[in-house]
Amino acid sequence: MKKLLSLFAFLVFFVGTITAQNPVSKPLTHEIMVKLKKVGAPQISPDGKWVIYSQGESSYVVEDNSSDLWLASTDGQVAPRKLTSSKGGEDGYFWHPKGDKIYFSAKRDGDEVPQLYVLSLQGGEAQRLTTLSTGVSGAKISDDGKYIAFTSRVFPTAFTDSLSKKIAEEKKKIKTKARVYTTFPIRYWDAWLDEKQGHIFVMDAVTGAAPKNICKELSIVESKGFRLGSFSFAPDNQSIVFSASSDFHTSAYQSPTFNLYQISIQGGKEKVLTTDGMDYTGVDFTEDGRYLITTANVNGNKLYYLPHVYRFAWPAMTGKTELAAKLDRPINDYVLAGSDIVASIEDQGVDRIVKISTETGAVSALLGGDMGSYTGVSVGPSGALAYNFQHLGAAPEVFSYVGAKKIAISKCNDAVLSGLDMPRPEVIWTTTSRGKKVRSMVLKPAGFDPNKKYPLFVLMHGGPAISIKDNFGYRWNAHILGAPGYVLIMTDYTGSTGYGEKFTQDIQYDPFRGPGNEILEAAADAVKRFSYIDGTRQAAGGASYGGHFANWMQATTSHFKCLIAHAGLVNSEAQWGTSDVIWGRELMNGGAPWVPTKTWAEQNPMRYAANFKTPMLLTVGENDFRVPINNTIENWSIHQRLKIPSKLIVFPGENHWILNPENSKFHYQEIASWLGTYLKP
After folding, report:
1. Whole-angstrom distance, CA of residue 127 vs CA of residue 80
2. Got the DSSP string for 178-203?
3. Based on the structure, what is the number of domains in the chain?
């Protein structure tokens, strides 16, 4: 008996020891996700030795959120140290060409709008450079370090800050708050638009310098449809090249065109650089000043055009040449490095870094594989890279690539995430009934048991011109959604990006039926492949275009136990007239709603309301102007009228996304409750 007791005691001690050494990993929770550090894109110093980046602290109390700048050595030998410490956050940071100063924009000392600051690395506090009532955005410095240019949204005739202030004060005195419009658009995402325009300001890069609005004599500014795009200092450092539209007010019936222009940093009339009808966006120059590099696409009646990279001889603006003509992949961001373009591209669910020669247009791979996303790239001398890397189970961090070696720089979330159970997704390819191959990610829940059968949650992405990538999500985090005990499948249906221009474009005139069938067929394929999926217990949901698909599934199948639609349209015709953008919807359906096209007639969920029967959770932000609340209210009315089990959640103060942490937590809880009611994991 004593021997048995001794053996029992030993086993208890042994098991306890093992448990202590190997703690049971935990699932990702909303509380953990909110507290993760938010790391921004890195910027390498001119000598390549240092990298700066932003690091944010979040909490459920929005007012307590903060973001500061950090400095670390590119080779990883010097640990990161905090450069700033303020209640607000720093953004738009960049180096002085000499590498001894850092510039950034921030709200400090009661600022209502961001101002420009400079911080010497020799020590001391950051110095404020601007006091504009309209704020600072997108600042850049000239190659010689003498001038800074930025944009600010001002009233059309307010070419001095004193005049901006005067006009603003006069408007405050007007008793009526009526908004009057004569042109389109009138609102954007969650804000009503006013008459303000983006203008370019230039100033000496020294404390006490006065910014000058250089747009006073621009003829394009006087057009009804003026809209400023991107800009860059020209190689002479005495002029600026920018993209702009003069016909943005026509966006109700066509796609606006952005052309390239040049203006002296002293102001004056603009020089028109492009008039070929293409839509130009990016503006950059090669290090030797020989070429202007830009991104552009055809402007026509297709729903989607992939932007391509072009080279012009500078300053002649001759010899227009397409670079990387066969790439056929979206470019997320890019920088010029010597005679090369270093770009992050989207490719079949991951983001890779490639190099594009500005001389030959040849493309060569630098970083990337079958997992994760490489973005926010910055390039230093001798080819050193800094970038953000993330995947489905890891929030973005800063890495460097020096001498063919990957070096983890920030590592601020490693300790938290290492103790969590976040399985890696499995990628499957499904050949659909119409002969297309579509990619899906299948994700197991935390604590996965291969001997169990799990319900399936079909998570449908928005866009449609985006994709389900292997990166970390905050708004619809797959690991949190699956944690109660669900397998998730996320499919890149026709219309998704990263699979070629044609694949994305093919959703035109077939917004729901074809892609919706692909989603269903991919889910069926997963059920056949994986014995741990219980195909009799399935739910589907998504946000934005994913919410549209949820409503389409409601209209066309009784396959699911329940559905979830956030910011989803139920009536395509009503959506066309109430959204902040309408032309793309017209292109999708082949004409205006009063044009009797087959798409309007056959692929509007509202027309199939008699078929609705699946329990549905409906959620929406009250200030969503992209998919206005009327669509969700109409959908709710249908469900109530037909006595279908349903729940409506309206978030006051929220827009297309549920961003307030407490609201976000409640949203996740309600989704989990709804799925649990009908799937019972």
Report:
1. 22
2. ----SSS--EETTEE--S-EEEEEEE
3. 1
